[in-house]
Design brief:
With about 325 residues, the protein is of the alpha/beta class. Helices cover about 40% and strands about 15% of the residues. It contains 14 helices and 10 strands. The longest helix is centred in the last third of the chain and has 20 residues.
Length: about 325
């Protein structure tokens, strides 16, 4: 084994050992939850559950770990580096295709917040015009979402550059288009007083569950999973009822996003979280028919080659109850 691989293996083992160390908080079940981004409103309910002690009330000690940059969260979950992690539904399906066996237990967004953001001045009328336009396109090219857009409209005619999450290049280049979460970058533009236009990918039929909490199959005892999900539900109910109560503490964990932008982002989240489905079935719950629709979309776009049964993708302990 090469030295660098030996070091990485040792670090992984130490992280797993810490994750499973029963002495770190006597009487509480330890859960390491890996985020796929920095603290922002898209994780607001999770932080609310932490700030208000809802996890501890449920007998859980949840360590919320922000993304250090480019974390392969699905692999971290599969390898036991963390107990649970945030992924998108389409990534979960793609990872399953590659041999990973993760299941979804909670979905923050009932509808995807993914889109492409452009400057409002002279903006195209459709996503197709953006995709086949001129200038620079900043995206994470390997994501299933962009493979789907490629399959729908053909390869983009724009010059593609990696998306790094920053807005400086967008501010300096009026011809640049970049991927975004409608709850994140557009509110930052509002604060900067830069008019933008956002094209949601859900409008062209790509609407996966997003910010999905995933675990290894059989990686969490059913009673622990139930407590974890219930605490997140309560946290999200509190956050969506009064995000301004929690955003200052979240902003302290992420100085790059002002409280004002977080408040705007939380407002934009409402129609994506508070839907007729979640009103009836509970926040975080998932509809097997929606999973089937995403399976069909990814299969038709050539992103996945198989069509798994949606039932194998979910472990949902609260399907018939609402806290």
């Amino acid at each position: 084994m090469k030295p660098i691989r030996w070091i990485l293996a040792l670090v992984t083992c130490l992280m797993v050992a810490t994750c499973n160390d029963p002495t770190s908080a006597p009487g509480l079940v330890q859960i390491r939850l890996q985020l796929n981004w920095v603290p922002e409103p898209e994780f607001g309910g999770i932080y609310a559950a932490e700030f208000d002690g809802l996890f501890r009330e449920a007998g859980l000690e949840v360590e919320i770990i922000k993304d250090p940059g480019g974390a392969a969260v699905q692999q971290m979950i599969a390898q036991g580096v963390c107990d649970a992690g945030i992924v998108s539904g389409d990534q979960l399906l793609q990872f399953r295709e590659q041999g990973g066996d993760l299941v979804a237990i909670y979905s923050v967004f009932d509808h995807t917040p993914y889109g492409i953001m452009v400057h409002a001045a002279g903006a195209p009328e459709t996503l197709k015009e953006v995709w086949q336009g001129t200038g620079i396109l900043a995206i994470e090219s390997g994501l299933p979402i962009w493979k789907f857009v490629d399959a729908t409209y053909g390869a983009s005619t724009r010059k593609q550059v990696p998306y790094g999450g920053a807005i400086a290049q967008f501010l300096s280049d009026p011809t640049l288009a970049q991927q975004c979460f409608v709850t994140s970058e557009p509110p930052l533009m509002d604060i900067q007083k830069v008019p933008v236009k956002v094209f949601s990918v859900s409008d062209i039929g790509f609407d996966p569950y997003s910010a999905v909490v995933a675990i290894r199959r059989d990686g969490m005892k059913p009673e622990v999973q139930k407590k974890f999900v219930e605490a997140m539900q309560k946290g999200w109910q509190r956050y969506m009822a009064n995000p301004a109560q929690y955003n200052p503490r979240i902003a302290a964990l992420n100085p790059a996003m002002a409280v004002e932008a977080m408040n705007l982002g939380a407002k934009r989240m409402q129609p994506l979280l508070l839907t007729p489905w979640t009103a009836e079935h509970g926040m975080g719950s998932m509809n097997p028919a929606r999973w089937q629709a995403m399976i069909d979309v990814l299969h038709s776009a050539g992103v996945i080659k198989t069509r798994p049964d949606p039932a194998v993708l979910m472990q949902w302990p609260l399907a018939s109850t609402k806290p």
